[in-house]
Amino acid sequence: MNITQYKHHADFTSEPVTLQMLGAPSKPLRVGFILNDNFSMQAFTAAVDALVTANLVSSTELYSHLTISHTSNPVTSDLSIEVSANITLDQIPLEGEDALDILIICGGFRSSLDEYPPLSDTLRAADKQGLTLGGIWNGAIHLAHAGLLNGFGCAAHPDNHAVMQEHFSQVTLSVNALVIEDKRISCATPASALQMMLKLIEQTQGKDLVTGIREILSCDRVAENGELILFQPGDNPAFPKALRNLLELMRSNFEEPLHLDELAAFVSMSRRQIERMFQTYLDSTPCRYYLELRITYARRLLQQSNDSIINISVACGFLSTSHFCHCFKKFFGVSPSESRQQSNS
Question: Which residues have CB under 8 Å from 216's CB, separation 6+?
C-alpha cells in the first residue's frame, strides 16, 4: 500500500493542541563539574553534551556549567587530554547571584579513591547551602568520604563496589548504573552519565525538551547487517509494528497531514486503539505527536535553509501562517523569525 494515497488537504488540528514547554527559569541552572585527576573524559563530555544540547534545542540558555580543579590547572583526563578548569575548589560560588545549583564530582578508572580533605570540606559546605550533589564513575566515593551518602543509595563503577562495601557500610550501593534520590545523584558509566543529566533536565524542563535532545544525540544506530543507519524519533524495535508504521506514515506526510481516521484505516485499528497505543508507548496523543514532528521539522528548515516562513509553514502542513507561528511559539517559546535570528547570531 502506498502511503501517499492517504494525503488530505487539511490541517491536523481538529483535536485540542496541548503542546507546551515548561517556562524558562529566570536564570540558567548552574552546574559545576569537579574534575579529579584521570577523570573519565567520555563520561564528562556525555554529561556536558546533554546540557549544551538542551540550550540549543530550547533556543535560550537554560543551563550553564563550570569546570573545577582541586588546586592546579589544567586537569588531565584518562585519555591524557588536558582540560582547562574555570576555577579551583576554593573559588566555588556557593552563595549569592552566581551560586551553583548542582555540584558533580567526575571520577575515572585511575582516579584516586583516597579522601582529599579540602574536597570533603567543600562538599559539606555545598550540602549546607542545599546544592544537589552527584558523582560520575566513582565520584560518589568522595561524597561518601564526606559523610553525605549515609542513608542514601548510590551508583558507582563495578570496579569500585568492593571498596564501597568495605568502607562505607551506611551507604546503600546499587546494582543500577544510575541512582537519583532527593538531592543525591550518581552514575557509573558514560552512558548513564548522559541518562543522569537527561533525567535532571526532564525534572526541570519536562519531557518535550528531553525528546528533542535525544533526537539530536541519538541520531544513528547499527542495523543487523552492521551498517550505520539514521535513527528516527520513535524508532524502537520494542514498539508494536502498527505504531512504527504509523510513525513512518506521519514522517512521510508533513505537507498534507493525515486525519486520525486515515491513520486508523492504514493499520486497521480504531481511533481509540491508536490513542491508547500512543499514550502507552509515547506518553502523548496522536495529534500532539504529529504536530511535534511537524514543528520540529519546521525549526530545522528555518535554521538550515533560506526558505520563507510562508513556504516553510506550507511544507509542514499549515494552511495558515498565523496558525503556524502560534503553534511554533507555543512549543519553542519564540516566533519562527526569532528562532531563525537566534540560529544566525
Answer: 53, 56, 57
